[in-house]
Design brief:
globular; 119 residues; mainly beta; 7-stranded mixed beta sheet
Length: 119
């Protein structure tokens, strides 16, 4: 069993930056892919970025310029650096793990961390 715990969310003004962290614990050897998704009320959850153990990444085109995903395999951590944040980036951001391909969603989810972009 794997547990994911996110941290780093908060309130940031437009144009600001945040770095989200997710730490995995439990049976972590199978975590081939880890990623970040986000969701706002009334909308479907969407992929922000995903990364494999080997460093292969997947970003939707709308996320690629401002968001960067990275990973520390030794520490079982995944990070999301978010720059030039916009109000439309306001959402709950969820850490995800368990997929074997960066194009797929895993079955393990964290509890989410709120990111609010507002002046």
């Amino acid at each position: 069993q794997v547990q994911l715990v996110e941290s780093g969310g908060g309130l940031v003004p437009p144009g600001g930056s945040l770095r989200l962290s997710c730490t995995a614990s439990g049976i972590t050897y199978s975590l081939t892919v880890m990623g970040w998704y986000r969701q706002t009320p009334g909308k479907q959850r969407e992929l922000v970025a995903a990364i494999s153990k080997g460093g292969t990444t997947n970003y939707p085109p709308s996320m690629k310029d401002r968001f960067t995903i990275s990973r520390d395999n030794a520490e079982n951590k995944v990070y999301l650096q978010m720059n030039n944040l916009k109000p439309e980036d306001t959402a709950v951001y969820y850490c995800n793990a368990g997929a074997y391909d960066v194009d797929r969603e895993g079955v393990v989810w964290g509890q989410g961390t709120q990111v609010t972009v507002s002046a």
